[in-house]
Amino acid sequence: MNLSIPVNEPLIGIKEKEYLSDCLKTGWISSVGKYIDLFETNWAKFCGKKYGIAVSNGTAALQLAVDSLNLSTGDEVIMPSFSIISCVLAVVRNKAVPVLVDCDPDTWTMDVNQIEKKITNKTKAIMPVHIYGHPVDMDPVLKIAKKHNLAIIEDAAEAHGSQYYSKINTAKGKWEKCGSFGTLSIFSFYANKPVTTGEGGMVLTNDEKLAERLKSLRNLCFLPNRRFCHEDLGYNFRLTNLQAALGVAQIERIDKIIAKKRWIGKQYNKQLMGLPLQLPSEKPWAKNIYWMYGVVLLDKYNLGARITMARMKEKGIETRPFFVGMHEQPVFKKMELFKREKYPTTERISRKGFYLPSGLSLTTAQIDYVTQSLREILS
Ligand SMILES: Cc1ncc(COP(=O)(O)O)c(C=O)c1O
């Protein structure tokens, strides 16, 4: 079988084309227009939040979210070592200090048991990051944040529609969407995300004042009553109506998108059982959307992720390595950040983990081919 299976590809439907051509016909191609408003309103509603502020990408969303908290130089934000650089960047660029905790060996999300011992009198926020579609164990995070009066910047970039069973508000508990928990919650709509606008992001909040501040920051902090006059430093992080049109179309079929992601995850789970691999988990309190289906080679298997990935490539299958821990990033070593810090779970999974094709157009035959190929390589 000579297949070329990408790790991801966007699935663009008829509605996207219809809404896009509406933008072109009406001339609303810039950062104002009905699709921007609809995208913000509909995504906030889907996630259970009041306000949505669409921005140019997820990295910008993090940057704005941290900026909106008005941190002072040296304030600290606790976050996972296993994540994308955007999380640390947002904090460092706002002159605050990122403080790391290791990840949980099962879910690969931040180990919530390590948070409290990292709290100091400078700590101002916690940044939980839902990894590869699996939620962070949010109730302990919410309790710690309340106890120490900390903001939560929830990074749900990879967790569109993932759910967490929270018992914070009711004794019986309730399934809540990822992105509904943060003081500020952020999303990415990059092309490899379940809902994609090509490039794009959003910040969600229930706080009206934060929402106003975020809107101002995204648009150069023009004074409302005097354009071209500024009391603060902002950014141009605007999303276009064209991009938002794609998002609006996809939110209309979000249930189908999530069902397909979960179906892919379950097919892989079934077919990869018994191989020397740790498969993604789904805790009883979690609904994983398997944004990317990640696997970690078990220690008893001799080859590393790199060689295994190269062999997959020879078979026409594209894969991607896991994140490199933030404490191991050359750029942060140069900056003398995270000096001599060790996060053993992050280190192990970043060397032994990679993810398999997980795109929305993946077929049963492709999943069979990927799993059969991996079986051959690992046996
Ligand atoms: C957890 C997480 N946060 C933030 C981002 C940044 O999003 P973007 O690529 O849209 O800037 C990503 C990107 O994939 C991500 O995975």
TrEMBL record:
Residue numbers bearing the N6-(pyridoxal phosphate)lysine modification: K193
SUPFAM superfamilies per record: PLP-dependent transferases
Family annotation (InterPro entries): DegT/StrS_aminotransferase, PyrdxlP-dep_Trfase, PyrdxlP-dep_Trfase_major, PyrdxlP-dep_Trfase_small
TM stretches of this protein: none
GO BP term, example: polysaccharide biosynthetic process
Family of the protein in this entry: Belongs to the DegT/DnrJ/EryC1 family.
This protein's name: Aminotransferase DegT
Organism this protein belongs to: Candidatus Gottesmanbacteria bacterium RIFCSPHIGHO2_02_FULL_39_11
